[in-house]
Inverse folding.
């Protein structure tokens, strides 16, 4: 067991070193994009992986936060930190309302309700004047962080994005490993039993939903500063599907899975960019492939392999948001 | 006062025209949510590809016309058959393998299928629509005194009602429907009685998909035949299904038509909300009756 912990720390140190050095060997904007989506996918995974709720409407939080931050920074002239705060706040409020409505239904209905609510946000974004319809909010200034650090400097922006990602990621890991995290996992595994032990399951679900929405919003806000752009793509249902796919590819219910999935798919998208609509087709094929034969995802498969090498024991296929979590790093 | 001028009572013809549009939309909502409900009943899968299959139906009719010169009426029979066969292939090759898993995997798999189908057609035809002419027999219209009723739209309302009622009759009043309902309750027991449940599941999926394709053919002359027509409508249909609850076939039909009408009325009295009104109603229904208006408990 001690050895495991040591390996985790070594792995984390290597990853951190890679991330810190990334601007010198990869185009920084691509890494920033991947980091934003990684945070988005981690936030989404909090809900599917640890409470077992599949939200098909997370684009609503990502996109509305992107719009709010872009508007706050560009039109109201707020500094970036306050702009991000405004975006996160709106995403959290939206998450409170949506979560409050959606947790009345479970399973498949939960997915449909979140999808429909997110579509409502899409239509609102299409109609209200401040989002500028099809054009979106363009040329968003990045501004000076805490009026000191100039974010127009790509390197400064990169380290800011990395810091935001690490903070969000740490918050998620801390939540999962807290007593609160144990309760939500108990609700995922057996809700009636958790209820009978006196835990208000709906209360816990709502809190996780709000946290997930707020962190998705954080990802969206930062994204709008990275690309200096907030558009309808950010609130469209395809964005909700995109985050589901990233988490599925990386491994539902694993801590690192969404990060791996996000980097994998963002890289893929950049290599396939010239293919036009075929990218959608490739996404669809990956979806079908993952559901049919690769349900554990990249990290889930590695974790299962590592676990089974130590104790040669087989496990059944995981439920959605299910058992893959147990052996995962 | 100008801002509120659209809240005043509109002239009657405009009102009836929007009600007609609402009724037409409602006809498609009803047919699509009916197919979703039938598939969900037996397969326990939400068919996310339903919108893409509706689009396939419309494109199939367009191909039949432009490649083979077969008009609307043959297409009305052939397109659902062809797309239904595609559905059967999908069920046998893909869906069959995930029945023992969490139903959410079914949603993810069919979502992937929808992306594939839509992506292929978008690559081929872009986002713009292809025109499909109204069949000559149904061109023109008649004046009802209070409004002008185009013949084709009258036909769509009539035909979709007939299709919905026929589906309802088949499921609720025939022996085949009794098997189907029994298999929904307890597939193992029904199989033990000597009924080939896997084949029934295959055919049910095929029939649900064919229903979506039929709606697509009927929609082709009204909306344009476009690769995006399916994804635009399927999310609204999901909301309709949540509102109606999936327990009841009749509930799917009634809520489909009713919500189409509500949408039409909203277009008259408060056009800004016409896109969102169904989602708002869904939120209200979730507050008051979470299982849906016609549904049983979750």
């Amino acid at each position: 067991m001690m050895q495991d912990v040591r390996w985790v720390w070594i792995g984390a140190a290597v990853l951190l070193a890679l991330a810190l050095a990334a601007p010198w060997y990869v185009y920084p904007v691509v890494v920033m994009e991947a980091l934003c989506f990684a945070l988005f996918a981690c936030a989404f995974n909090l809900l599917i992986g640890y409470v077992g709720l599949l939200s098909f409407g997370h684009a609503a939080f990502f996109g509305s936060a992107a719009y709010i931050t872009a508007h706050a920074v560009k039109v109201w002239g707020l500094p970036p930190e306050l702009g991000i705060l405004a975006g996160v706040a709106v995403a959290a409020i939206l998450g409170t309302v949506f979560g409050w409505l959606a947790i009345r239904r479970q399973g498949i209905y939960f997915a449909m309700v979140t999808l429909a609510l997110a579509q409502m946000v899409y239509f609102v974004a299409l109609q209200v004047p401040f989002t500028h319809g099809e054009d979106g909010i363009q040329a968003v200034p990045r501004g000076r962080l805490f009026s000191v650090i100039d974010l127009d400097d790509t390197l400064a922006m990169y380290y800011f994005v990395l810091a935001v990602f690490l903070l969000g990621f740490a918050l998620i890991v801390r939540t999962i490993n807290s007593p609160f995290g144990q309760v939500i996992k108990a609700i995922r595994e057996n809700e009636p039993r958790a209820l009978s032990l006196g835990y208000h399951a709906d209360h816990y679900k709502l809190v996780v939903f709000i946290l997930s929405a707020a962190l998705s919003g954080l990802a969206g806000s930062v994204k709008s500063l990275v690309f200096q752009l907030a558009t309808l793509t950010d609130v469209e249902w395809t964005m909700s599907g995109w985050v589901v796919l990233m988490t599925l590819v990386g491994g539902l219910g694993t801590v690192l899975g969404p990060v791996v999935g996000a980097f994998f798919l963002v890289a893929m998208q950049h290599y396939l960019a010239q293919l036009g609509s075929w990218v959608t087709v490739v996404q669809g094929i990956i979806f079908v492939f993952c559901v049919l034969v690769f349900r554990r995802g990249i990290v889930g498969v590695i974790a299962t392999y590592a676990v089974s090498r130590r104790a040669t024991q087989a496990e059944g296929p995981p439920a959605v948001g299910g058992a893959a979590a147990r052996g995962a790093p | 006062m100008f801002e509120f001028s659209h809240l005043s009572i509109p002239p009657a013809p405009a009102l009836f025209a929007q009600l007609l549009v609402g009724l037409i939309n409602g006809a498609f909502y009803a047919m699509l949510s009916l197919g979703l409900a039938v598939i969900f009943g037996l397969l326990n899968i939400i068919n996310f590809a339903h919108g893409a299959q509706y689009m396939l139906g419309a494109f199939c009719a367009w191909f039949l016309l432009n490649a083979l010169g077969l008009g609307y009426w043959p297409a009305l029979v052939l397109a659902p058959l062809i797309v239904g066969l595609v559905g059967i292939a999908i069920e046998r090759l893909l869906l069959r393998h995930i029945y023992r898993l969490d139903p959410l995997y079914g949603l993810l798999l069919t979502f992937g299928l929808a992306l594939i189908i839509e992506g292929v057609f978008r690559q081929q035809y872009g986002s713009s629509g292809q025109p499909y002419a109204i069949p000559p027999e149904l061109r023109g219209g008649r004046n009802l005194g209070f409004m002008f009723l185009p013949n084709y739209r009258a036909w769509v309302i009539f035909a979709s009602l007939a299709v919905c009622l026929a589906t309802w009759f088949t499921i609720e009043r025939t022996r085949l429907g009794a098997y189907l309902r029994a298999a929904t309750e307890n597939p193992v027991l029904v199989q033990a009685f000597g009924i080939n449940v896997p084949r029934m599941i295959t055919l049910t999926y095929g029939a649900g998909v064919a229903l979506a394709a039929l709606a697509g053919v009927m929609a082709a002359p009204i909306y344009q035949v476009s690769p995006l027509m399916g994804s635009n409508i399927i999310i609204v249909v999901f909301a309709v299904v949540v509102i109606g609850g999936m327990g009841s076939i009749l509930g799917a039909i009634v809520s489909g038509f009713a919500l189409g009408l509500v949408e039409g009325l909203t277009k008259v009295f408060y056009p800004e909300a016409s896109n969102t009104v169904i989602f708002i109603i869904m939120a209200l229904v979730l507050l008051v009756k979470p299982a849906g208006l016609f549904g049983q408990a979750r």
Residues 63 and 69 of chain B are 9 Å apart (CA to CA). The interface with chain A takes residues 40, 46, 94, 97-98, 101-105, 107-109, 111-120, 122-123, 231, 235-236, 238-239, 241-242, 272, 275-276, 278-280, 282-283, 286-287, 290, 298 of chain B (CB under 8 Å). The first strand of chain B starts at residue 141 and ends at 143.
